[in-house]
Design goal:
It contains 9 helices and 4 strands; from the N terminus they run E-E-H-H-H-H-H-H-H-H-H-E-E. It has helices at 57-73, 77-90, 97-138, 152-163, 176-192, 196-209, 214-226, 230-243, 248-284, and strands spanning 15-16, 22-23, 294-298, 305-309. The protein folds into 3 domains: 15-94 and 172-259, Tetratricopeptide repeat domain (Serine Threonine Protein Phosphatase 5, Tetratricopeptide repeat, Alpha Horseshoe), CATH 1.25.40.10; 99-129; 261-309, no CATH class. The longest helix has 42 residues, at 97-138. The protein is 58% helix and 4% strand. It is mainly alpha-helical.
Length: 313
């Protein structure tokens, strides 16, 4: 069980989960503690009919969250999921999770289309340049210089290409940080229910609502590692460490997942080299040779390799 599985749950020292880690409060506001029947697995909607003050939507959402916390503490993860879902639905944030994900999807689609159009334009520009050079050469003219210094726009475009596509950023939303907490708590239940893709989706929206929400990155890292996406888990853990550089637990998790990722990459390299070696031996076998007939020696000064042939092997 990863050490950060339970880290980041939005409860106030509620105890330990199945990995033995204590769960701590990170925010979400104070809520009224329900009576024993409200905290039971069969708890229904918070009763506000006997109160003298008006209960706001965010108050109702907070009470649903509290019921969800009570269910989670007793291991009733499906009931906790239902309570957190009601908190999400009651939250008065102008945009709902599905709307946020749809907006991000539309943004990403437009950026991919822009990048594809820009690439096609660059390919066409190079084709015209080559054709122009061939025409000039056939007419006896000197070939045009094509390695000119790029313009500022070209340099900026190349830099953006190296950095990847722009990242979608959600505008600040009313009660957005509250909704992020409700979603992140629901993601905790989803992980316990082994619904990892849905947990990642909830954590995605929580991070879009609150990009500095450390525990949402930890939650998503947990779900990513559960689905053997260590590279993504490591990226989220490193982001969490940037937000909380003095957190020893996060630092330890980064080191652990980094080791797993390094081992995965090394194994991938070995498998790739093995396949290349098999291919090389297959081709050389037609001439009665193998890769064992060739020795490679690296020059310690330049780092380059020299290849020698040994016919006796």
């Amino acid at each position: 069980m990863p050490e950060f599985v339970s880290g980041g749950f939005d409860l106030d020292a509620v105890g330990k989960d199945d990995s033995g880690e204590v769960i701590f409060e990170v925010g979400g506001g104070a809520t009224v503690v329900p009576n024993e029947s409200e905290a039971s697995p069969s708890a229904s909607a918070p009763d506000t009919t006997t109160t003298t003050t008006t209960t706001t939507p965010i108050d109702q959402a907070e009470q649903w969250k509290k019921l969800g916390n009570d269910e989670f503490k007793t291991g009733n993860y499906l009931e906790a999921y239902d309570m957190y879902t009601k908190a999400v639905e009651a939250c008065p944030c102008p945009m709902k999770p599905k709307d946020i994900l749809m907006q991000r999807e539309e943004f990403d689609k437009k950026e991919r289309e822009k990048a594809r159009a820009k690439m096609d334009e660059e390919i066409e520009h190079r084709r015209r340049e080559k054709q122009k050079n061939r025409d000039d050469s056939s007419n006896g003219n000197e070939t045009r210089e094509t390695n000119k210094k790029p313009s500022n726009d070209e340099a900026e475009g190349a830099q953006q290409g190296r950095q990847g596509l722009p990242t979608f950023q959600l505008k600040p939303q009313e009660c957005g940080e509250k909704l992020a907490i409700f979603l992140n708590n629901r993601a905790a239940s989803l992980i316990q229910l082994q619904r990892f893709e849905h947990a990642i989706s909830d954590a995605d929206v929580a991070i879009l609502l609150n990009p500095n929400y450390t525990k949402a990155y930890l939650r998503r890292a947990t779900a990513s590692e559960k689905t053997e996406r260590n590279e993504e888990a490591l990226r989220d853990l490193k982001r969490a460490l940037v937000l909380e550089p003095s957190n020893a637990s996060i630092r330890k998790s980064v080191a652990r997942v980094q080791k797993l990722e390094d081992e995965r990459v090394e194994k991938l390299k070995e498998e790739t080299m093995g396949k290349l070696k098999d291919l090389g031996n297959s081709l050389l076998g037609n001439f009665g040779l193998s890769l064992d007939n060739f020795n490679t020696v690296q020059d310690p000064n330049t780092g380059s390799y020299s290849i020698s042939f040994n016919q006796n092997k």
